[in-house]
Amino acid sequence: MKKNKFQWGASTMLIIYGLLFFLMFFRIFYIQVTGQVEGQQLAAKAAARYEKKKTITADRGNILDRNGKIIAEDAVTYRLAATVNPDASKGSKKPIHVVDPRRTAAVLAKYIPMDEEEIYERLLKKYTAAHKPLWQVEFGNAGSNINHATMQKIQKEHLPGIILMEDKKRFYPNGVFASNLVGFARKEDNEKAPVGKMGLESIYNKELSGVDGNVQYKSDLFGYLLPNSKKMIQPAKDGENVYLTIDRTIQNFLEASMTKVYEKYKPESMMAVVANPKTGEILAVSQRPTFNPQTGAGLNNSWINSLTETTLEPGSTMKTFTLATAIEEGKWNPNDKFQSGQYKVYDRTIRDANQVGWGTITYLEGIQRSSNVGMANLLKKIGDKTFINYLGKFGFGQKTGIDLPNEATGKILDEYPINRVTTTYGQGSTVTPIQLIQGLTAIANNGKMMQPYVINKIVDPNTGKVIQQHEPVVKGKPISAATAKKVRDTLGTTVTSKKGTAQNFASKEYEVSGKTGTAQIPRPTGGYYWGKNSFLYSFLGMAPKKNPKLIMYIAIKKPQLGMTEVGSEPTSEVFNTVMGSSLKYLNIKPSKMKTEKPVIVGQYVGGSSKTASKELKSQGMEPVQIGGDGEVLEQYPQDGSSLLGKNHVFLKTDGNNIKIPNFKGWSLRDILAYQSISGIKIHTSGDGFGAKQSIKPGTIYEGNAKLTVTLKKPEDEYN
């Protein structure tokens, strides 16, 4: 009986285990065939656990000037983090979590802009908002954008648990530099890399961003590479480099001048642009208020690019195109006369700036004095429809097609006869600064009007291939070359004539041609502001007059002028500085060349140093006295030498006190001549002309003092 029971029990157990084995076998077979467990792909689960992928971040492309000088680039920075969970140090010989929060906070407070107590509280955090154990903490903006030098200092403190992770930031080495054109890129909290937020950084964000790469490999649970696994590398494709037409040197001239005038006259706003009339390339552009893309200072007050996105009533600069129309149509006779002061159009009276005019004057004098009545009379000769048609040919009332978005069109008023009259002198109708520049290219470029542009080329840094190359585009020929020359000559007299409104724009070296503007500013509620400090003052000009190499527009809104100051003073301060410096930088020969007669150096040895100095100054020379007043013992150059221009003549006297001269601008030859005749040892470095010196000019020389003069080339001085 017992035996039967045992056999029955054994059989039952065998059947049960047999069924379990069969079910297990079937399950394994099913998994092998389908690769699924409870609807989940095992291969995918394994891949998720063992296959790792690491992103290789692409570098954002650079923005460069026409000569390849950096305007915007990626820079390596560091981000601070702290490991606060003690579990991180398990199995490690050295602690890799923050062991002493108080000391760590005190040290970090020396390097990041965060209060020590705030750092300490952050290091004490143990749990997330969801009450899960916290592994690592960061320090927000205070712990971001740490430079390399600061990173090294923090590392030398050897703080356990402190991590410095490499990061990228957009870097703008020039600070305020065509900021409203270039814009800026920034990395927000949820972004892996800087993203263009404004300007060219935003417009060309796709081209500049590039494509991230990755490294894919198999590893164990601890991250170690598994045997026989292969790394698969997809390299990053760096963003494309965008070369602008901007010239960094000319842009720096403009920025410096704009800042100086903005601080001096405190206007409501300013804008200026410099262009090449032969090609339409924008060489410099700036506005105030503006912002610093590196620090973000001023960003809240300056989001619009005034060059293309704002419209204005141009004032008398519009007379440039009224004059061009009259000459092209054969309606201009500079010696014809008209009665200035007032002009009636139906129920409206047009008045000149001084209300009463200057009596009966010629049309040439009318242009020189910027007479509104002269323009109204000229319109009668031209014809309303013809005038409006020419404004269209010059590109007003339509987009220029510049390679920038959001370009405004302005509006040429043509509904009533009075609109056409006021448009001849730039009131009522509106234009953009870039339209004025485009129109002026026709006058500066012998009738050919060039489309303005700011992108020179786009280059793939990965291959060196030029993706996009911008070539000059002729938009039309609204006037003939002969007309363009007459306009330049006529507007040149506004600068040279004693009756001209542009006398402040005269240059000692270059002939300037252009037209001033004083425009009333519309009130939001209707009508216009009035008063000396309530106008828009501007100048649309070019140089050299005969063959302009540069054109420029400068507009200043509501400058705070002194009692005796006029609107052309702040505008000319910007124009004269930028135009003169830029033409010299471009090696444009002065158009006002004087033929100088050679000066024969007299015999000064044995005579009085005072008498010799006086005579040399009267001849245009620069006497350099070595020693105190007294008898001249030695001179250089010798008597009978022939000199051209403003040269140094060295006079050594019997006096002992030698004052160190100002060596700025001296040639190496003159420095060596001074050394020879004075006996003072001079150490020189560099090439070119004197730029810096180790002993201040006017200092009495002591025999043991070391005198060093640093030389620089003219182009280096400009750069």
* N-to-C CA distance: 115 Å
Put simply, the count of helices is 21
According to CATH, what is the class of the largest domain? Alpha Beta
Largest sheet, strands/sense/barrel = 7 strands, mixed
Shape: flat
- The CATH topology of the largest domain is given as Beta-lactamase
CATH superfamily of the largest domain: DD-peptidase/beta-lactamase superfamily
Low-confidence segments, given as residue ranges, are 33-50
Beta fraction: 15-25%
Fold and architecture overview:
The protein is of the alpha+beta class and 719 residues long. The chain folds into four domains: 2-34; 59-175, Penicillin-binding protein 2a (Domain 2) (Alpha-Beta Complex); 251-585, DD-peptidase/beta-lactamase superfamily (Beta-lactamase, 3-Layer(aba) Sandwich); 599-718, Trypsin Inhibitor V, Chain A. It is built from 21 helices and 33 strands. The strands form eleven sheets. Strands 4, 5, 6, 7, 12, 20 and 21 form a seven-stranded mixed sheet that branches. The protein has a five-stranded antiparallel sheet with strand order 14-13-25-24-23, sandwiched between helices. The chain has a three-stranded antiparallel sheet with strand order 3-10-11. A hairpin with a 6-residue loop joins strand 13 and strand 14 (282-288).
